[in-house]
Specification:
Two copies of one chain form a homodimer. Chain A has about 450 residues and is an alpha/beta fold. The first copy, chain A, has two domains: about 150 residues, Enolase-like, N-terminal domain (Enolase-like, domain 1, 2-Layer Sandwich); about 240 residues, Enolase-like C-terminal domain (TIM Barrel, Alpha-Beta Barrel), CATH 3.20.20.120. Chain A has 17 helices and twelve strands. In chain A, the strands form two sheets. In chain A, strands 4, 5, 6, 7, 8, 9, 10, 11 and 12 form a nine-stranded mixed sheet that branches. In chain A, strand 11 and strand 12 form a beta hairpin. In chain A, helix 3 runs antiparallel to helix 4. Chain A is globular and about 60 Å long. Chains A and B meet through helix 1, helix 4, helix 12 and helix 13 of A and helix 1, helix 4, helix 12 and helix 13 of B.
Chain lengths: ~450, ~450
């Protein structure tokens, strides 16, 4: 099967109109994706997305288009024989690697994830099933070991995978219909306490029993909200908070110590995404608390995750599906989390991120950690109307996905209407509400 | 003075033809820059560059063009009144910050550095003189303190700057003609021992007495080369080595322990650019050695530098002029280095990087650390024919720069000939030697 052409679509939804997904830093996000379509001579299409929050999607699109030169014309079989070869051709490209992580690594991830999608579709398997069926030796060969062997050796990875393999048939049967346990953000910053309580009541009726609140406003109102939610749900329900990197290390300590009485499960992104030593300090400061530190949705590389995991800086490993270089990087991170006993609790939401992370949750819980005792996979019901195969939830869990590949097919009309800047949603929108000029930055500091 | 328009030029030099600047990772670099010209109604032009090594320059250009929407139409006086305001409009842009560091932060730096250039030109001062003339309080207000106050408080920064200020007149007089002490890379990977010795002899005749060798090939030949150079220069001359991130932590230890007998001054980039805990481990392992760890040319943010400096992970702070978000970020990093007693030894070479870092060396040695006892500023004579004001060297030191601004004006003909892909150097070049397809990656691992 030959890759015959690539198309990259700048897809943007004007979610800023109703402040969907806003937080202290990202005040008016337009949920967006660089959507990659790799066409083949077989009729199958490889699809991937890189989620962004509006302006900047074109930066990713530019990069993905450039990288696609390295796959168009190649055979899928070259990739399936040795995924690490394409990974290195991208990530270690002797000129492009100068661009560092961020846009470059995300663009590499787009290409790799579309190839993995094609592979899974060619085998008529959902992504998680393709991954769980790989031999442990093959998984180890998919990983770039250069910078992580001091935390996890290939031999240790093999041991983890082989141990899970011995119970894999049973685990796959356990998860044949009901997939990973999920949690929801109920407490968006814009909502009143009564609105949040009503949201929680509805989610509880649907079977959810773990909820997250956004914090990072003034201390008093944050604490008041946490207290009100804890009183509403009682002492036994999981409650987490998320500060979206708003604080420095010292401010984080000052805020978090006031959260101690409320039996929280985790504090998410209290500080900068790459402040490993800051996380170490927070984890030591609050070592006797009910909660532990969580981060990863903006963890830019396996090297950052390596440090966070091996030093006990964080406890909950919140991989994102599209921040690092695709399946290959995520395999490395999930295996490191397994070695250090950290629950993999992927970051969801955005556009179609939940459609992707359900597969990683499945792979982790069947073929790596091999259990479902401690993990929570984020679920947010945003924009599921955009895709042909929305995620399904059953009693607070993901229903096990069955569509071949990632399940990232968008409705054609949705794609056309939301293509930036030519789709009908955008072409008549005032210029100041489009792109980088859309700069109504909430006053910071 | 109003910014009336912006032009971004994709400038590439086919340096891969003679392997100029190659290392184990970057095997065939085409030294390149995204060159920004901000035009004004005064006739002055603000210039900045983002250095890259070929493919990927267009990624940076795309981003810089997007960001320029946020400055075209603004007044220089808005910027000079409060540089942090523009900094935050860029770096904390509520949609763009999702793009993380790398391409995004480098593009922000391009815009900021061009504004600083304009400011210095409007005052008819070289950049270093503009910076040294700023009041300590003003410098403190240029810095984004959100994520670094646990390492350096604004009050501590003020104290450092005020202490240097008390001796500033004397220091400025000391450096009125002879600027920062320099060092050179003499041992490029492609050269034979005899070629390297001849290079060193020539550099010594020109007054240099500190030299760097590239390592990262096989252990035996690396050690043989180090030994030969040490024998050639004798025991009292500074000798450093640079591995360009080629090793993992354990491989670095294995290699470096064989370097112990040769009285090296520093080991540069033995491991990944953001592996803070890896550097901590190496520094502890080799705490009794003659050498200390050095890195920073790919340090992607002040948060990474904060960790490297406060934990004694590195000793030599190798800032790059165009990797982080311009003067504002570099100010923060140089002040943190001063607090932790780490010599600022900037990364030079590339295209016109030396033209920029000489200003940072001056500012550090006059107005921050306030001495020249321990710093070495890299000097590489590459491509100085491209600019109107090449750096001048005097007896192993930078001659104090006097041109207003950064001194980044390129010869017009050089710019036109090397514009990618339309300039005459590129338009007839075979496609496989241009851009991302230029993928002759040396086999890695």
């Amino acid at each position: 099967m030959k890759i015959t052409s690539a198309k990259v679509i700048d897809l943007r939804i004007p979610t800023s109109d109703n402040l969907l997904g806003s937080d202290p830093f990202h005040t008016e996000p337009d949920y967006s994706s660089a959507v990659l379509h790799l066409e083949t001579d077989s009729g199958l299409r490889g699809v991937s997305v890189v989620f962004t929050i509006g302006a900047g999607t074109d930066w990713i699109c530019h990069g993905v288009e450039d990288l696609c030169q390295l796959v168009v014309g190649s055979d899928l079989e070259e990739f399936t024989k040795s995924p690490i070869t394409l990974y290195k051709r991208l990530i270690d490209h002797h000129q492009l690697r100068w661009l560092h992580d961020g846009v470059f690594r995300m663009a590499c991830g787009a290409v790799l994830n579309a190839m993995w999608d094609l592979w899974a579709k060619s085998e008529k398997k959902p992504l998680w099933k393709l991954l769980t069926d790989l031999e442990p030796e093959f998984v180890v060969d998919c990983i770039d070991w250069r910078n992580i062997k001091d935390a996890l050796t290939p031999e240790e990875a093999l041991e983890i995978l082989n141990k899970a393999k011995s119970n894999k048939a049973q685990r796959e049967q356990d998860m044949a219909e009901i997939g990973p346990k999920a949690y929801c953000t109920a407490g968006w910053l814009g909502l009143t306490n009564n609105q949040i309580k009503a949201t929680i009541d509805k989610l509880q009726a649907d079977g959810f029993d773990a909820f997250k609140l956004k914090v990072g406003q003034d201390l008093e109102s944050d604490v008041e909200r946490i207290k009100a939610m804890r009183e509403h749900i009682g002492p036994d329900i999981d409650l987490m908070v998320d500060a979206n990197q708003f604080w420095g290390v010292n401010e984080a300590k000052e805020h978090i110590q006031h959260y101690l009485p409320y039996g929280l499960k985790w504090i998410e992104e209290p500080i900068a995404r790459d402040d490993v030593l800051g996380y170490v300090e927070l984890s030591e400061t609050f070592k006797d608390a009910s909660f532990k530190m969580a981060c990863g949705e903006q963890g830019a590389s396996p090297v950052i995750f390596k440090q966070l995991l091996k030093s006990d800086a964080i406890h909950y490993c919140q991989i994102d599906a599209v921040r690092v270089a695709g399946v290959n990087d995520v395999m490395a991170i999930i295996l490191m989390a397994a070695k250090f006993g950290k629950p993999v609790c992927p970051h969801g939401g955005g556009i179609a991120l939940c459609n992707m992370i359900q597969h990683y949750g499945m792979w982790d819980q069947i073929a790596v950690s091999g259990h479902s005792d401690t993990q929570l996979v984020e679920y947010i019901d945003f924009l599921q109307e955009a895709v042909e195969d929305p995620v399904e939830m059953k009693n607070g869990h993901y229903a096990t996905p069955t569509t071949p590949g990632w399940g990232l097919e968008f409705h054609q009309e949705f794609l056309e209407d939301h293509t930036f800047p030519t789709g009908k949603i955008w072409k008549n929108r005032p210029a100041e509400k489009c792109g980088a000029k859309f700069e109504s930055v909430r006053k910071l500091n």
